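Quick entry, no commentary yet.
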Amino acid sequence: MAQAEAQGQSGLPASGDGGVRFGGFAFADPPQGPGLFALTRRVGDRLFPVLIGESDDVAATLDALRTEEPALARGLADGAHFMTRDNARMRRHILRDLVGKYNPPLNVEGRTARAAPEIAALVPDRAEGDFPEAVSEDIEVSEADLDRLVRVFYRRAREDSVIGPVFDSHVSDWENHLDLVQNFWSRAFLRTERYKGAPFAPHLGLNLKPAHFDRWVALFKETAAAELKPAAARAAIARAEHMSAAFQAGLYPLGHPERAR
């Protein structure tokens, strides 16, 4: 699968009339009848759909998010855009096409790939772990393998001159941290349900630079290649690279000066 397909579609620039176009369909505000809604987040000068659905469901959807995931609901969307379509069958077809094209992170049904890293960094991707490119049935990996991967990686990371000081300054309970990270990888590979968090949020406020991410990825690639079987290592490295790109897109939506040098 091409990289653009694996990571989802890019965001779109807002149109000058206050509306936006997704997949050739015009969305405006306010709603004018039965149709579809698109909640969007702005990253730089581009808009990314975070949730697309039936206009009649938008109020209930937002209420459910505020109740079930209040931290996520705060600042969820920069705008809600609506498209009027009276024909229910046409709405279903358009909804299916748009969700499959843009892979909004809060849509689960109809997704074809991960959300674009720019938006996945801000809104946790509910369907990210459900795609074949993320976890293949041919991959052989166990909880023991993941435990070894996590422990070896963090032993090396703590000794590293670039990222070691970051971890030592912000992690006080290492056993809890190691358990949390293993739970994340267990969910990614083994479909377990122990990890319930959003990995991006804890990295806010750490003053991370691109050099930190570059070193983290390089060290993780070395460790995964040494500790996992080849197919599992490739899948873990792909996930780590995706997270690095997503986190940096969220932390530096307009780019970072170090990347411009």
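second:
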Amino acid sequence: MRVAAYIILFFAAALFGGYYLGEYQHGLDETAQENLRGAITAFSFLTVYMLWFSFLYERKSFYCAIPAGIAWALMGDTLAIPFWMVTVSLILSLLTQFRSGLVWKSLLWAVAAYCYSDIYSFSPYLLFYGIAVAIVLIGWKVISIYDNLEEEPVSRKNDEKIQSSFSAPTEETVTSSYRPPADDMPALQPEPTYVQGPEPHIQSYYRPPRDPDIETPKVTPVVRKQASFNDLKSDDYAGILNLLDKKSAALPPALQTELDGLVRNGRLILQSMKDDPEDVKPGTAFLNRYLSAVIRVVEQSERQNLPENAPQSSPVLERCFTALQALHSAFVQQLAQLQENDQLKFDVEMSTLDSLLRTDGFK
């Protein structure tokens, strides 16, 4: 970025010097013209560069040098305006803010002054030199005043900080460390201390007599209500099958085997209805028709399996067993029928697919 700026400054200085080059070449031979061209080019570049540097880093000196440029424009010509502005700015910087970086700038100014001597003569401009000196003195004074104004708020802030941090000394109470000698103080006898022992714990076994007029409340055991088929909806097939599965444990082994098989096939029927929407209608009709019969048989079996009904329960349980066996067989056949429908449907789909493949020539 800096290299690009230097290149731009170089071309700007070349254009600036080349614009005024023709005014100084009249009546000169070729060698003199070549020397003059080099002097003007170097002079323009150095002065433009130093003026740009002064604008960036020495802004106060640059502002004070503007009157010098205006005065030279009125009394001299335009080509030397940057040189005299740089001269005044450099002198002010050396007087007000001297630093080591101004040394190399002074060397560049000396080179520019040498080029200036090849172009101009110093003697005809004595009036301007006096004006330049006056501008330097005035600028020096202005910069000094400006610097003082900048430092004053800072010093005032520092004074305020110092004052705010200052606290007046406070009177402190000084405690004397003097103690009278032991002989002057009467001996203090320690008071006897009484230690109270633990209080004895007295346990009473007294119980008030029982009032015969007050009856002891009877505790009624809470009996949980057993699950019943009446608590379930008629279309809650999964709930009915779960309750049948629970009641199976209270039945005789033969009935239990048939009921377990029936429940297992009933759950498979529900799964088939869930997997295939076409099985919903026949499966629902079957369950609505036969689950109620299963419930009646199971309830009758529970009643007959009680101990008090043992003598006359044998024929009834046999009939219940026969009914459960038939119902179990019906559930097995219904499940097979639903699965057969699924198989037929699959066979039809495969046949259709085979015909489609043959039609398209893939088989």
